[in-house]
Design goal:
Elements: E1 5-8, E2 13-16, H1 21-28, E3 36-39, E4 41-43, E5 46-49, E6 63-67, E7 77-80, E8 85-89, E9 104-110, E10 118-121, E11 140-143, E12 146-149, E13 166-167, E14 170-171, E15 179-180, E16 182-191, E17 195-198, E18 207-214, E19 217-230, E20 236-243, E21 246-253, E22 264-272, E23 276-285, E24 292-303, E25 310-312
Parallel strand pairs: 3-6, 5-7, 8-10, 15-19
Antiparallel strand pairs: 1-2, 4-5, 6-9, 7-8, 9-10, 11-12, 13-14, 16-24, 17-24, 18-23, 18-25, 19-22, 19-24, 20-21, 20-23
Length: 314
């Protein structure tokens, strides 16, 4: 509050005049030139403050320094001296949702905001569109929705990172030897031995015929031959290909139900990635008191070129 100076002839000096009580009261109530200071009360996300002296209305640029009495959990409003609740917004127009207990916040009133007026938070800090699943796990940051904690990327795991490489604190364990395409030029796995599916192995795909782990990425060609023997009038055997325990493609039957069959060879191109488990499993659909079994043999996994190593598990 600036007052005029007058000349005092007795002292030959300019003297500052003292404000009147009316002038002092007017100055004190001017919340545009200097913000009011108060601690809030709240009901959920509706906050209120009481200023003294009481403002007669909301004015453009009116400022308040508010000490929050509780955390907010959503879009907040502020009601000053019962003049009416107004939204509290960031400068970008998004609602303020993350007030903290004992946090001190400065707001200014903008009568044009959202058409009906709002308090605009001053210097709200971080903003942006980074989301928790895009930030490293456990690290904190701020975006347009407020303070956040990183969740990390579910794909940032050791088995997805090349061995010898460390990314954001995760050491890689993936060993690869190139990308393959399906073919018959090179057999990565060749197992002519017979494996028998017996009639008592009736639980769906309970009989493990073959299991290998492949350290390549791409598509491999799986071949196998099966032949069924039965004295029943119905029933049969079937096989399925599994990648990491998940069935891939169709069921493969040994032939007509209720009859012995000639050997049947199946060829299936299967997409894989390094470290995948590839399994051939089957089961029998039998009738009690009848004989039923199937032999599976000549299991191969082929590619156009051999770029790697294979571990034969079973």
């Amino acid at each position: 509050m600036v007052k005029e100076k007058i000349w005092d002839p007795t002292t030959s000096q300019w003297v500052q005049t003292a404000p009147t009580m009316e002038e002092f009261a007017t100055h004190k109530a001017d919340y545009v030139k200097h913000p009011g200071v108060a601690k809030s009360n709240n009901i959920a996300n509706a906050y209120s403050v009481t200023l003294d002296p009481s403002p007669g209305s909301y004015l453009e640029g009116m400022g308040i320094v508010v000490t929050a009495n509780a955390d907010s959990s959503g879009a907040t409003t502020l009601n000053v001296n019962d003049l009416g609740a107004k939204p509290v917004l960031k400068a970008n127009g998004k609602p303020v949702t993350n007030l903290k207990n004992n946090g001190v916040y400065t707001v200014r009133y903008n009568p044009s905001a959202i058409g009906t007026g709002a308090f605009i938070l001053q210097g709200e800090g971080g903003s942006g569109n980074l989301q928790p699943n895009q930030a490293l796990k456990g690290y904190t940051f701020s975006n347009d929705e407020g303070d956040q904690v990183g969740l990390g990327d579910a794909n940032l795991v050791s088995t997805n990172i090349k061995s010898g490489v460390r990314i954001f604190g995760v050491n890689g364990s993936l060993i690869t030897f190139g990308t393959v395409t399906p073919g018959d030029n090179t057999m990565l796995v060749s197992s002519p031995a017979k494996r028998r599916i017996e009639q008592w192995q009736a639980a769906e795909f309970s009989a493990l015929v073959k299991s290998v782990v492949l350290f390549v990425t791409g598509v491999v060609r799986v071949k196998f031959t099966m032949q069924q023997y039965t004295s029943a009038l119905a029933g049969g055997t079937r096989l399925g290909i599994f990648v990491n325990g998940v069935k891939f493609g169709a069921d493969y039957y040994s032939g007509a139900s209720g009859s012995s069959t000639l050997p049947m060879t199946y060829t299936v191109d299967v997409p894989i990635k390094a470290g995948d488990y590839l399994q051939l499993k089957g089961h029998a659909l039998s009738i009690p008191s009848y004989t039923l079994y199937a032999d599976v043999y000549d299991f191969t996994v082929g590619v156009t070129e051999r770029p790697f190593a294979t571990i034969d598990l079973e």
